[in-house]
């Protein structure tokens, strides 16, 4: 029996979607819709929530909005699933302040990127995580997203941080599947250390390789699909895993419906998730944070077609 | 029954390693060793050979050496498995000349990258493949290796080339597993179109996702391991697939043994493969093409340890 | 007579160094030293101050520290020179909040980057600057620093923003001297529009090409040198310009003294400026923000040698 | 008196344009037009010719075409100016073969890039240049063009090669003006070592900084303009330098006339140079090598307008 098919005692594993942030047409955070998203996700079987991630438009939220989102999700969750929260700031001191704020508002653990806007070397990246961990007093997960931070978390740094208990896991959105597999192999001896993939369409391979969980933006739309895939993997039913992944990969094409000249790549994905949730009756509006464009009627119609062809509508 | 478990009529599928080019200590191509590599691979169960790929040090070979390598492999193979050959040149006219030369010397199909050194746009990349195909009269495979050519094969271009029968398949060494999966899904309706991964340690996930073959540099060292993995996938035994992949991923750590200050990343991988083949008694010397450094005694000892721990020595 | 030799009515031109942020050995912002830096710069002839730039370690400062720095500099300046302040946050809404705070504390104009951590397209970048300008009510300068934000300010966007009066100028730290020259040529017809270079060692060429000012981190160390260069350019004495630039380029080698394995590129430059200011008696300590390493005794000695050989010690 | 205003004994200095390769409408190399280009350049006052550079479409030429171009230029030149020739191949052994061929056909010196398609480290790059120099027996210039080779020539490697007499100079097309200035300063003590800029619109600044020459693709169109600029710099007349540069920068906008969706960035520049030379009556046709698109009538008309407004038509 392989590790992937073993039930583990990990606190954080399974399906942990990055919760989107609904906005009303007037631009304000729509807390009623956000509460419905929380229910939609937990009803779909997710095993945790990632609050204030990139899919939550965290770089676009003011501090007051970040606090409102955290408070709303924590309140609605009511302890049903663990809450990981992004402490998303440029560098160490700011991350610590942000992280403490989120813990005070209900976060169980924090998700921390490499420094950004700053130009760091490997030693600084390592010291950054050590200083944050020492200051915040909860589990922290390294979020490896070089397309946004411009710095890949070096594998040797990740390993030292893992072995020293500084980080409880890694959320990998690096797009580097070779380093992902190497991280899995190199940390296999650490009980409880968790490796999550952030890439929606390669979860089957990640699970076969031993990944402990998935943080899919698309999980906002179809949490139950990801849960079925993770359960099938735990049961060793890889044909079912792949079949579910193929369906979810087809669903993921909603992110390619927007006009690339008008809508940026970042806005296209999040806008598609929001539009799908409007179509599913979960949220009121697909409005995006300034300066991102919202999806229009033609794009909404294309997304509805895909939802229908994948069994969601 | 999924596509991955269906026997296909594909001419090119399964395990198609990029054949390394042994050199003697004096720097000349060692054809006797090269012939033993061919036997080692075919005895190991490979279903094709990729001649003059990056792992064959093709950018380092003179034209005379390229011809010698092609002739030697074709002669020793004697038609046992199909031969794909790299037509590795900067742009269209040069690729065509190189490709024709290789077909004349025995290549069954050609492997063609996007233009390099040149600065191309998508339209030029598409025209490049169309012009090469029109000129060479054999199957061509697109080799997507942006780390070397500095240009990712755009997915829409690949699809048009696939649907128009210009390319018979893609060898993906892009490191972009999301686009790899999207290519698989988008070409699933094209009978015979072949998608290969070039990444040694994520073959399990690629096969689960429906990949038709693997072109592993590490396959020079352990062709039988990759063949077992592909066969297990065809039989739907994913636990065996993963177990074999885990062992091969451990074996792959031979490429991390060299001193990075002395040996470049490119030379480290190829040097490790050659050193392992010396230790396995297949080739005479681990000499590299100028200006790459060859691996030393300490690095050789480290590689021997890994070969032992993975059952090869 | 060329534009470069004409006295202009620009509010912002000449030498506008990005003010460093001194810290005490205990890590707190050292306001007494910061006040001495302000005097050192104004006594050296600078024509403006750039507060809370990258050289001011802005991504490392907490909000309270940013306010303390802004207040301290504004107080000590007492209106002697105009103050440009960085409104350095990820995206639009956060930049607006930060900018308003800085204007309230005394900033005359704001310096705004393209969005970062976010993944933006050209339309979003343009809307970002328009939204910030509409909200803050003071002059804004676009700060083009793709090495940090991962997004080059597109030339056509910059031109539209310039022609529409959205931005009053550009601070270019893109390292792309061709686009810098093109921006100068394309905005030459806009009276008052200001183009500054942020690169310390190519100011001579930038001035010859018509640049209106320089924002040199090294100007913290030798403001008078940069002032002499700008004055010589205004007088058309290009031999003097080049001679001064050669001396300053030699002085700039202080940034290459730190051990690259220990000190990151970012910390090396700022640490060298701080160390030089300690040696010049302007600030108390060369301490850096966490997690950046401070320069050590050997590096300090090397910097002292360079200060001596360039006439500063 | 500064170095820039001193007459030097350098064999290679001044204006050394990379000669374009005219093609007839049928795609063949048009040697009659090429001979007229040679005369046009020498009549314009150039002090050398760079044969088979990127502007000569070298990656697009077959070996037979490369030999034809080299032979044609050498024959027409008849020893009037020195000939630098690109030995443009992926790695060491291939560069040596190519270089020897060009020397046999009349090249006085060779221009050599870092290895490409290969993935090299600094040690390999250094050994590459040393091995080429040892084999070819003529002066070699390092051509630093990371946008094409994907590897910046490291400054410390360039310095060691310069001090050991391996390279006679550097042609810098790196777009990194800071490293360009540092190279100038660091090699100022080496008599005869030559640093050339390849960037058409920042030659004024490069000359002010002490550059010894310029290798401008645009020099195919207006060699006399570049010669005037270099002469003005030697005379210390920097107002004239800048005025000439401003005019040439305006002329350079011909490269931005093509439709970017149809014509790649590479093809746009070369196509614009060719189109201008057709308009000037120097060559017969503006045909490009496959797969690059040639400029059309609308683009030609736009270029004619620019030629008129800059005094060439």
Write a structural description:
- The structure is a homotetramer of 313-residue chains.
- The first copy, chain A, has 313 residues and is of the alpha/beta class.
- Chain A has one domain (14-238): Alpha-Beta Barrel (TIM Barrel), CATH 3.20.20.70.
- In chain A, 45% of the residues lie in helices and 10% in strands.
- Chain A has helices spanning 31-43, 63-77, 92-104, 122-136, 146-149, 155-163, 177-186, 203-208, 223-234, 238-252, 265-279, 297-309; strands at residues 14-15, 49-51, 83-86, 109-113, 139-144, 169-172, 194-197, 213-214.
- In chain A, strands 1-8-7-6-5-4-3-2 form an eight-stranded parallel β-sheet.
- In chain A, β4, α4 (122-136) and β5 (139-144) form a beta-alpha-beta unit.
- Chain A starts with 13 loop residues before the first strand and ends with a helix.
- The model of chain A is unreliable at 1-8 (pLDDT under 50).
- Chains in contact: A-B, A-C, B-D, C-D.
- Chains B and D meet through α3, α4, α5 and α11 of B and α3, α4, α5 and α11 of D.
Quick summary of this structure?
The structure is a homotetramer of 313-residue chains. With 313 residues, chain A is α/β, with parallel strands linked by helices. The first copy, chain A, is built from 12 helices and 8 strands.
Topology of this protein?
The structure is a homotetramer of 313-residue chains.
Chain A (H helix, E strand, L loop, with lengths): L13 E2 L15 H13 L5 E3 L11 H15 L5 E4 L5 H13 L4 E5 L8 H15 L2 E6 L1 H4 L5 H9 L5 E4 L4 H10 L7 E4 L5 H6 L4 E2 L8 H12 L3 H15 L12 H15 L17 H13 L4
Parallel strand pairs in A: 1-8, 2-3, 3-4, 4-5, 5-6, 6-7, 7-8
Helix pairs in contact in A: 1-2, 3-4, 9-10, 11-12
């Amino acid at each position: 029996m392989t590790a992937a098919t073993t039930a583990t005692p990990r606190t954080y594993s399974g399906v942990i979607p990055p919760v989107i942030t609904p906005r009303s047409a007037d631009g304000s955070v729509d807390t009623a819709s956000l509460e419905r998203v929380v229910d939609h996700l937990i009803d779909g079987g997710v095993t945790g929530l990632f609050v204030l991630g990139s899919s939550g438009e965290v770089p676009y939220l003011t501090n007051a909005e970040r606090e409102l989102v955290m408070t709303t999700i924590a309140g609605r969750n009511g302890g049903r699933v663990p809450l990981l929260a992004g402490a998303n700031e440029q560098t160490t001191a700011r991350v610590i302040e942000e992280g403490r704020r989120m813990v005070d508002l209900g976060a169980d653990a924090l998700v921390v990127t490499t420094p950004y806007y700053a130009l760091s070397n490997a030693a600084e990246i390592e010291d950054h995580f050590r200083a944050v961990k020492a200051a915040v007093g909860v589990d922290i997960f390294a979020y490896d997203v070089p397309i946004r931070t411009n710095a890949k978390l070096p594998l040797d740094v990740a390993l030292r941080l893992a072995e020293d208990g500084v980080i409880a896991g890694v959320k990998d959105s690096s797009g580097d599947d070779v380093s992902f597999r190497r991280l899995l192999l190199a940390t296999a001896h650490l009980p409880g250390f968790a490796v999550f993939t952030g890439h929606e369409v390669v979860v089957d391979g990640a699970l076969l390789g031993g990944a402990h969980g998935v943080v899919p933006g698309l999980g906002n739309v179809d949490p139950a699909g990801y849960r079925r895939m993770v359960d099938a993997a735990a049961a060793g039913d890889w044909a079912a895993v792949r079949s579910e992944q193929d369906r979810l990969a087809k669903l993921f094409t909603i992110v390619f419906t927007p006009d690339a000249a008008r809508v940026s790549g970042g806005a296209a994905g999040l806008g598609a998730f929001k539009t799908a949730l409007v179509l599913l009756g979960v949220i009121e509006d697909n409005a995006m944070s300034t300066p991102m464009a919202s999806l229009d009627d033609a794009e909404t119609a294309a997304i509805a077609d895909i939802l229908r062809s994948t069994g969601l509508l």
